[in-house]
DNA sequence: TTAAACTTTCAATAATTACTGAAAGTTTAA
DNA sequence: TTAAACTTTCAGTAATTATTGAAAGTTTAA
C-alpha cells in the first residue's frame, strides 16, 4: 500500500465513522484531510481533493469551526482563507468529548430529570416509569461528570486515566 | 405532567437519541417502551403503542436481540412471543459499551494500524500520514482497552470507576 | 394432516438527510 | 468607487435510510 491508497483509505474510513459519532461524512472527511495535511488548505484544495461542491465545503467547514476542531489560518501573501485542524489527538478527543457532553448528554439529562419527577399517582406503571428513568438519569449524569472531569486533566488525560483505573 | 405525557416524552427522547449512538429510531423506541413496561410485551402491543408496522417491529426486535439487549420471554398459556429488555441500567450500559467496541472501535483500530504501517518513502506527506494515523491508532486502542477493562468490573462499574478516578 | 395463529422477509415507497450550483453577499486592492 | 476575488446561502435535487404491508414461511393444536 502506498501513499495515495493509504490516504484514501484513511479519509473514507474516518468519513464513514463520522456518522457513528454524530457528524456527517463530508465533515469527517474534511477533518481527516486536514489532519494528515502538512500545510493549511484552501477551500479550493479541499473541494478538489474530496470532489465535493463549494457549498458543501463551506457549510461543513463552518460546522467544524463551530465544534472548535478547525480554525481559519492566514497565509502570508494570500487573499483566500486557509484552514487547519487541531493536530494533537488528545486535544482533539478532549474537544469532541466536551462538545458531545454539551450537545447530547446535557439535554438528555434534563429530559430524564423532568420525566422522573412526575407525581407518583400510586399505579404500578407510574412507579416503574419513575424508577427506571431515575436510574437512567443517575447513570447518565455520572457518566457526564466522569467525562467532564477526565477531560479537565488536560495533558495526557487518556493515558493518565487508564493508569489510574488499573494501578 | 402526568403518566402518558411523561411516557411519550421519554420514548421520543430516547428514540431521537438512538440515532446519536448508532441505532435507529424505532429500535430505540421499542427498547424504551420495554424498559418502562411492568410486564413483557407482545409484538402486537408494541406495534399498537408505537404505531409502527408489523414488519418494522419484527426487524427491530431482531436487531435488539442481536445486540443482546432484548430477550424473548414465554408467557404461560400464550402462544405468541413476548419480549423484555434488560432492566438494570448498569448492565445495559455494559452491553452497549462492549457491542460498540466490537462493532465500531475494533474495525477502526485495524484500519488505522494498516494505514500507519505503510512504508515510509521519506516524503513529508507520507511521514505526516504515518505520524498522525499512528497517534490516532494509539489513542483509539487505549480508549478501547479502557472501555473493555472498565466493563469487566461488572457490578456497579460506573460508580466504582468514577471513585477510582477522583479519590 | 390441516388450518389457524403467529413471525419473517423483502420489494415498493416514504421520509429524511446530504449535496449541488448558481445567485447573493462580502471583502479587498487599485 | 468599482470590480475582481472570494465566501455564503438556499431552493432544488440526489442519495440514503427507514417503513410499510402483503406474501411467504413457521409453529402449534386439534
Summarize the structure.
Helices cover 69% and strands 6% of the residues of chain A.
Describe the structure.
Two copies of one chain form a homodimer. Chain A folds into two domains: 3-85, Orthogonal Bundle (Arc Repressor Mutant, subunit A), CATH 1.10.10.10; 89-166. The longest helix of chain A has 28 residues, at 89-116. In chain A, a hairpin with an 8-residue loop joins β2 and β3. Chain A has helices spanning 3-18, 25-35, 43-50, 54-67, 89-116, 124-151, 157-166; strands at residues 41-42, 70-73, 82-85. Chain A contains seven helices and three strands; from the N terminus they run ααβααββααα. In chain A, strands 1-3-2 form a three-stranded antiparallel sheet. The first copy, chain A, is mainly α and 167 residues long. The relative contact order of chain A is 0.08. Chains A and B meet through α1, α5, α6 and α7 of A and α1, α5, α6 and α7 of B. The first copy, chain A, binds a DNA duplex (30 and 30 nucleotides) through residues 24-26, 43-44, 52-56, 58-59, 62, 79-81.
Amino acid at each position: 500500500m502506498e501513499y495515495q491508497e493509504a490516504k484514501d483509505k484513511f479519509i473514507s474510513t474516518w468519513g464513514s465513522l463520522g456518522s457513528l459519532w454524530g457528524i456527517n461524512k463530508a465533515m469527517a472527511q474534511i477533518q481527516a484531510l486536514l489532519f494528515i495535511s502538512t500545510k493549511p488548505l484552501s477551500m479550493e484544495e479541499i473541494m478538489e481533493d474530496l470532489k465535493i461542491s463549494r457549498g458543501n465545503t463551506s457549510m461543513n467547514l463552518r460546522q467544524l469551526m463551530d465544534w472548535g476542531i478547525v480554525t481559519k489560518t492566514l497565509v502570508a501573501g494570500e487573499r483566500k482563507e486557509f484552514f487547519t485542524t487541531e493536530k494533537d489527538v488528545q486535544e482533539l478527543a478532549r474537544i469532541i468529548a466536551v462538545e458531545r457532553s454539551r450537545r447530547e448528554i446535557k439535554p438528555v439529562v434534563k429530559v430524564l430529570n423532568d420525566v422522573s419527577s412526575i407525581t407518583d399517582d400510586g399505579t404500578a406503571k407510574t412507579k416503574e416509569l419513575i424508577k427506571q428513568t431515575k436510574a437512567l438519569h443517575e447513570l447518565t449524569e455520572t457518566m457526564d461528570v466522569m467525562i467532564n472531569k477526565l477531560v479537565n486533566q488536560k495533558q495526557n488525560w487518556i493515558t493518565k486515566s487508564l493508569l489510574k483505573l488499573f494501578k
